[in-house]
Amino acid sequence: MPPLIEHEESSDGEDEVPFRDPKAPVKDEEDAMEDVKDEANEEDQDEDDAETGDDNEENFVPEKILSHRFEHNGTLMFYVKWEGYNRKSDNTWEPEENLADAPEVFNEYLESIGGRPVQPKKATGKKARLSGATPDTSASAKRRRLDDTGVSTSGNKKWTPPAGSWEDEVMNVDTIEQTQDEGLQVFLGWNNGHKSKHPIEVTYKRCPLKMLHFYEQHLVFKEGGGGRISNGT
What is the distance of C-alpha 43 from the center of its chain? Predict the structure, then answer.
């Protein structure tokens, strides 16, 4: 029996030749090139699938801005209708930075409302107290509503005293006041409910009897014994 042949490991560091099954088919150069092409086609297909996935993502385009509002923190928000979305429920509130890609739509809305929206200022406490104050209906307040020409400015309508004598038109002389700039001013009450203010010289000419009656009501008479007596009013 011949001795067994032992395979000695190579000591020179060279790689061993891999074992090939003699029954396995041998690929020629053409088959090898086909394998390379198939691998390249698979890589291209993977890249195309990735790009197609990016294209399928929804791209929202603003069609029109319908309104705007200010949030509690002062942020300006715009109510946007999107292209291809016609339901009201699809409209959304967006901050200005989300409309940076649609400058034409944004500028068109600003022009339609006359410029960039400005947040209204909150009313101060002082202004709120004034708005809730009770209107002054005193006689002095009514006199303050008269202008310098003697025209009644009660409400939104203006009224001018008639020409000529006022004796039959004036109901009474309300009061006479001394002013620093205008001198003596007479406040008249008219039969039609209006009130007016005039220089005393004018009332002397237009309604002298009414002026006399006013003085009589405010005179204080002296009795013969030295005592004083009023006119009874």
Answer: 57
Angle, alpha carbons 168-174-180 (nearest 5°): 120
Report CA Rg, the chain. 51
pLDDT digits (tens, 9 = 90+) for 147-162: 444 555 454 567 788 8
Residue 164 has which token pair?
């000529």
pLDDT tens string 72-106: 898 999 999 999 999 999 999 999 999 999 999 99
